[in-house]
Write a structure and sequence with these properties.
By secondary structure, the chain is of the alpha/beta class. The protein has helices at about 20-30, 50-55, 85-90, 115-135, 140-145, 150-160, 160-175, 180-185, 190-205, 225-235, 245-250, and strands at about 5-15, 35-40, 80-85, 100-105, 175-180, 205-210, 215-220. It starts with 6 loop residues before the first strand and ends in a 12-residue tail after the last helix.
């Protein structure tokens, strides 16, 4: 009989308000079928809303996130105990009943300088967790198959066409758009031309479509690797002036598709 018992992981930080919460949600998103994941703080604080925003923006489930004291797990054994800051590493240097203990040190995004510190920390955690899976999990092949990045050159090639790039920026801003809305925003009279570019993005798994009545809506694929989502998000947010006219035309558009059932 196959052993289906999941490996257990506990992420530790001082406040359990940002880094450990993001690490917990990320690992559950990446390999929840292989790991049972928890997080806690040595001096727990309220969960930072910016950490939740960063997770939700990239399509990572952040529901039921609650800050917990490390004593909540007193007496419980974990296969991996991973501290994410120096203070937690010192306070829990020898965590009882830990199969393997790792000490990772990430800057606190709440005091970190630079543009979008919570997204930067999320990306760094994502990279470290990818390495963790490669090193620690013998079943990583299964994980890799579900999280396989599109070829690097293919992804960036898709961004070289102005229609495709602006389509992604508009979809990032609005969430979902249909062909007629994109035609209006881009001032493109040729539907086949817009549809061909959407097909290229769909073939590369960068966007997904959803049919609702007579309309087909397109959105950025929520299962994109985090770094690809970051490229699209930061390109949009730091260059929103480049789609200002397109957004204005879309706002002025009449008879836009019905969004009575916008979910799924």
């Amino acid at each position: 009989m196959t052993n289906t018992k999941k490996s257990t992981v506990l992420f530790l930080c001082t406040g359990n308000s940002a880094r450990s919460q993001m690490a917990e949600a990320l690992l559950r998103h990446k390999a929840g079928d292989l790991f049972e994941v928890h997080s806690a703080g040595t001096h727990p604080e309220a969960v930072d809303s910016r950490a939740l925003d960063a997770l939700q923006k990239y399509g990572i489930d952040a529901k039921d996130v609650v800050s917990k004291d490390v004593n909540t797990f007193a007496g419980q054994a974990f296969d991996y105990v991973i501290s994410l800051c120096d203070k937690a590493s010192v306070e829990c240097r020898s965590y009882p009943n830990a199969g393997k203990q790792l000490a990772w040190d990430f800057p606190d995004p709440k005091t970190r300088v630079g543009n979008q510190p919570f997204y930067t920390t999320l990306n760094e955690l994502n990279t470290r967790l990818a390495m963790f899976l490669l090193v620690e999990e013998k079943q990583v092949k299964q994980v890799q198959e579900t999280l396989q990045d599109a070829p690097l050159t293919e992804f960036f090639k898709c961004l070289t066409d102005p229609i495709r790039l602006k389509t992604l920026m508009l979809c990032h801003y609005h969430g979902e758009l249909c062909v007629c809305e994109l035609m209006e925003a881009l001032q493109e009279e040729s539907q086949p031309k817009v549809s061909r570019n959407l097909a290229v993005l769909k073939k590369a798994n960068i966007i997904k479509d959803r049919k609702h009545g007579q309309w087909v809506f397109y959105k950025i694929n929520p299962d994109l690797p985090l770094w690809e989502k970051s490229v699209i998000a930061e390109s949009t947010e730091n260059n929103v002036q480049s789609i200002a006219e397109e957004l204005h035309r879309l706002d002025a558009m009449k008879n836009r598709p019905d969004r009575a059932s916008f979910c799924k």
